[in-house]
Amino acid sequence: MANIHALMTLINKIFPSENCTSNNVAEFIQRLALKDVSQNNEHFAPVQPPQVNQSGRYSPEKITQKPSTRGQQSEPYATFKKMRQVGGVREEYLSYYANDAELFFKQAQFMKDFTDNYDQKIPLDTYYATYGTMDDAQLRTYFTWRTKVRQGVIEDTSLSYAFCYIFELLNDVGVSSPADAIEKVITLWTAFRRYNENMDVHLREWIRDYYVVHKPQLAVEFSAFSRSFPVPYHHGEDAALLAKAKACNWDDLRAIEASSSFRITNGQFYKAADQAMIEKCACFVIQELAKLFKSGGVDLRNMFIEKRREKIYSLFRGAVHRNLAVQPITVQLDDFEMIKLNSRGWYREYLTLTQYRSVIGYVLKCIEVKMREHFGYKRNLQIPNISQVENSFLYSEPDKFTYPTRPTMNRLKAWKQKAFSVISSTEFESTIVRAIAEYCKLAHLVIVNGVVKEIKLVEIDLSKLKDIEKEHLETAAKLIIEEQPAPVVEVTRPATIAPDIEIAGMAGFVDSLPEEGRTLLITLLNGGQVPPNSELLIETINTKALEAIADNMIDYSESVPYVYDDYTDELKSLLGGQ
Questions:
Q1: Any residues with CB less than 8 A from the CB of 519 and at least 6 apart, and which?
Q2: pTM score, whole prediction
Q3: DSSP, residue by residue, 19-34
Q4: Tens digits of per-residue pLDDT, 343-389?
Q5: Is the CB of residue 217 less than 8 Å from the CB of residue 178?
Q6: Which residues pair with 341 in a beta bridge?
Q7: For 196, which of 124, 171, 289, 565 is 20 to 30 Å away at the CA?
């Protein structure tokens, strides 16, 4: 009974204007069962009970649908909605499949003929840009930009939009043939570089991969496309020099230097002399050294260019591209690169400038040292340390990864051991000396007072020698009066000593340096290590040197900067003999 009274008290609070008694409590309970949550202070709102069914039974009631207040969706948003449903993926879960290349291909095929004319430009910044990564406004921005591109107007836009269009082309959407796809990618790449050059990193490989996959349908050689690239296909290597290095004719010094850590053409000796003569002489010496290496069982070409093989773990790396079934194939891209597909996967075989740059640098520096001595150049150099050759062989690929401990010379490949034996022999330097002398003889060169001169040969027609002798006798007979020779007067001219402009310039250079600059030079001259972040100071020193002696003082193109050998002795003297 106490519970009934408590319930009645609660009901009276809910219905303050009505009176709940024990006689009508059942009616109030029925009304409470039909309550809705309310927003009044009591958190309830009264709901009038339905009409009492006189039969006491429930009967079905017809449910009348309310008419939709939402109108038909306008274009292009209706098309976007249909596009998002392509592939059987529900719209609300599309974001989870945004990187699905097969889904992108199907949606791109659906939208391949779509055009737009949107008056806004909404940016997009995302990796693997696809339709699923764009909202409606971004889709309109993209398709408006694509419409203009297809009309030949390539405007600036977010890089992600440009990549999305490239993904379409690489998936054969909106193209008539594989050749058409490659040409359109190159056209976009070339024009869009005005706004952004970040495509360069990917498009070399993507176009290469596309060409390999579609090679059976392409009658054009890859080089016909690669020549149209806005940047060289062989990134970091000059294809012309690579071709000359591959030929190994040893008749182009710059092609030889492309594989070297030391360049004769960068030094003062080359700049101050007959450059054509220096180049020809150095190439002649290389040809003679090639014979020496051959006699030692070594092909000198092994140190200039090498063949490498690497596995390609995935084509179109970084791109949205659907998988295509490809039969085993071998595609020769050019004279330097080949792509193969076999049962074990994709492989790339290519030629590259050798890694033995220190070895070739040692050889070229030895040649310059001996040329300086032979031609009487005012500054001589020392033969470099043979340890750089040894280290280059010991720590070259692939040997350094095959030894659990520090490699030794007797564990290297046979040709490297033979090459080191030839370079470290006394015959190596003597061959260079003989080759320089032989070149001068063949080129009719002589050194007069430290100046190299070419002897011009005079050709005499022996058939006319008798006529010349007859004319000489007739002329002598006609001479009646013998002329007396004029007295010779010796004129003594005062000796003049030309000032050494370069040395004076060197002294001025040292005086112009800040204290930290002098300290850095002393450290380099003593073989010490340069402190980190010294690039700005080195640049300042080289700037001062250019002003004083018209040349750089420090070479920091390699990992360890060094002072040019031409100036080490003078610098040591000017810096107090340190």
A1: none
A2: 0.59
A3: ---TTTHHHHHHHHTT
A4: 889 999 988 776 788 888 899 999 999 999 888 888 888 888 888 88
A5: yes
A6: 329, 346
A7: 171
